[in-house]
Input
Amino acid sequence: MIKKKSRLICAVLHNQAEILDSPKWYNVHESWGYSLLQIAALQERYKSFKYLLPIPDFPFDIVTKRGTTALGVALDSYMDNDIWREEYFTYELIKKGACIDEVYFQGESPLPRALERHYYKSARLLIRRGANVNAVNSNNERPLDMTVNRNQIELVGNDFVSIRSTTCSLPL
Output
């Protein structure tokens, strides 16, 4: 007989949201520490993701063993041949209220990552929500530098005009 934890993970992978029927599985993780929401984002399981994300008080900022939240998974994961995940997952997590200034194990925050991935809709939302526009990426570039250096300023728009920094702390 398959354990309940395995059945829940399989339900996410197969987009069988009807099996995800209880808040008891909020803390279900696979061996690397990925939560059900993180697995849904990582594997691009839209139905499971759409089911899990709006649940009141769902802990979407749980960290994996590598210290990455669901937003980090959505921003850092790619499929074969360096094809990045769909922006949808990143954008929806930001809309839901994911920590916008978390620092990933690579030392980068969401705004520089979103710009690197060409997730301009998410970048605009991050700026509007108060993301740190002075956060640097692994190349020591600030988000504004990135957009100007790559002639992408028109894609992000005037959202750099209203700038403020915020802080966020995640449990270790």
In short: The beta strands are 78-79, 83-84. The chain is about 40% helix and 0% strand. The CA atoms of residues 108 and 137 lie 5 Å apart. The first helix runs from residue 4 to 13.
